[in-house]
């Protein structure tokens, strides 16, 4: 979760800077404090985390890139907040480039950190954009329970999650300034991860990522109040990484270093020890935990710091391993299946309208295949109409205007061997 700002104009005054320090980049540390959680021992947490990564059952068998379907909810109260599709497309592109390490600004990573830089086998695909007008002035973050989560509830002026167990839902709205500063975003990690001390987080309809409209879309440089943020779409990268299990690199421990009372860590072995967060700047001399000979400075280029978005360009190899492990375990279901064996037909085959009197459309979502055969059969099992597609066309349409009313069956066969049946009522 991230609250983030960047100053665009050199003319901004020091008093403005003080004001801007009230901005909150992300709310994950707030969440920790407000729950007043007691963490178990750090060493045990790291050990458990290492076990999860090394015992990942799918890691050795999966070479392909994992694709995560994304539903974007634009919850707006005016035209400025109703960001156009360009913002959505730009944000998905930035997520992809950042996770796949294809972003041009990786050249900004200091030489000493290059051996640690990781490329994630994770990409994101826009499945749906939902626009919802609201009269809620601001969605105000308030810890646990979190008041901003009403953005995820249609009846409360937000927009209900779409299949949150199978898709990454991202809400874009005005997160406002409650709780001590302008908030740029927040996310819920999977519950129970060892590097989060086994903390429990909201799941189901509340699972996902929330981004302030000012920070969404990469090219957003919209004025808000007297502060201008130089967001480059990295807020969503940071928040999605929380959603995939990563913590802040300084461990949310208010400046403690290893050996200090209250020390916490991100549970990641190849991020240098950092005592405290960056302050939306890019101070490459910053070294909040100096461990003597061989010590590395703070990795301000890491997406999980609070450095300026223009400064952030890297996940480390072990951060990548954890996120991929989460996608193979706690969030296994949100991956678009690479194999038909993993496919859940019941939630991914769409037949509409049903009942039908004109046409019936059949769509297959979230699956890569070679061929799909569709047969519309009557109650005697006789094929009335048939269609065949390849992977480039995900849906077919049957004209049913001439058919007698009654119950029909739609048979779908994927790659010649995996069959699924749906009942269709023609009236
Ligand atoms: Zn954060």
Helix content estimate: 10-25%
Main sheet summary: 5 strands, mixed
CATH class of the largest domain, anyone?
Alpha Beta
Overall number of domains: 2
Q: How large is the radius of gyration?
A: 24 Å
Bound molecules: zinc ion
Instruction: Tell me the strand order in the biggest sheet.
Output: 3-1-4-6-5
Count of helix runs:
7
DSSP summary, beta strand count? 16
What CATH calls the topology of the largest domain is: Collagenase (Catalytic Domain)
Following the backbone from N to C, one meets helices and strands in this order, namely: HHHEHEEEEEEEHEHHEEEEEEE
Low-confidence stretches: 1-21, 35-46
| Distance, first to last CA | 50 Å
Q: Any idea what the shape is?
A: elongated
């Amino acid at each position: 979760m991230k609250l983030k700002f960047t100053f665009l104009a050199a003319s901004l005054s020091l008093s403005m800077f003080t004001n801007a320090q009230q901005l909150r980049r992300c709310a994950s540390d707030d969440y920790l404090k407000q729950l007043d959680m007691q963490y178990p021992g750090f060493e045990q947490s790291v050990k458990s985390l290492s076990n999860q990564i090394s015992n990942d059952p799918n890691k050795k068998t999966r070479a392909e890139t994992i694709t995560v379907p994304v539903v974007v909810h634009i919850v707006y109260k005016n035209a400025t907040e109703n960001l156009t599709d360009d913002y959505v497309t730009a944000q998905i592109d930035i997520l992809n480039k950042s996770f796949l390490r294809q972003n041009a600004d990786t050249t900004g990573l200091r030489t000493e950190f290059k051996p640690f830089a990781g490329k994630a086998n994770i990409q994101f695909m826009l499945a749906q954009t939902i626009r919802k007008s609201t009269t809620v002035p601001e969605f105000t973050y308030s810890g646990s329970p979190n008041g901003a989560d009403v953005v995820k509830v249609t009846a409360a002026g937000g927009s209900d999650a779409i299949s949150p167990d199978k898709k990454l839902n991202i809400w874009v709205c005005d997160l406002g300034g409650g709780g001590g500063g302008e908030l740029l975003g927040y996310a819920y990690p999977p519950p129970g991860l060892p590097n989060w001390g086994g903390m429990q987080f909201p799941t189901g309809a509340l699972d996902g990522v929330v981004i302030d409209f000012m920070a969404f879309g990469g090219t957003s440089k919209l004025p808000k109040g007297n502060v201008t943020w130089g967001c480059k779409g990295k807020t969503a990268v940071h928040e999605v990484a929380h959603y995939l299990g990563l913590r802040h690199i300084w461990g949310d421990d208010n400046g403690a270093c290893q050996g200090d009372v209250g020390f916490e860590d991100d549970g990641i072995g190849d991020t240098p020890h950092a005592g405290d967060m960056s302050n939306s700047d890019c101070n490459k001399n910053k070294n909040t935990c100096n461990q003597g000979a061989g010590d590395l400075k703070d990795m301000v280029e890491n997406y999980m710091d609070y450095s300026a978005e223009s400064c952030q360009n890297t996940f480390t190899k072990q951060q990548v391993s954890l996120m991929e492990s989460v996608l193979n375990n706690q969030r296994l279901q949100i991956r678009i299946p690479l194999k038909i064996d993993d496919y859940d037909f019941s939630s991914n085959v769409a037949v509409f309208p049903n009942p039908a009197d004109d046409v019936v459309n059949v769509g297959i979502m979230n699956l890569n295949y070679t061929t799909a055969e569709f047969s519309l059969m009557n109650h005697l099992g006789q094929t009335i109409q048939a269609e065949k597609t390849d992977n480039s066309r995900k849906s077919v349409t049957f004209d049913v205007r001439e058919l007698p009313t009654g119950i029909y069956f739609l048979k779908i066969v994927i790659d010649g061997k995996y069959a699924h049946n749906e009942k269709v009522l023609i009236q």
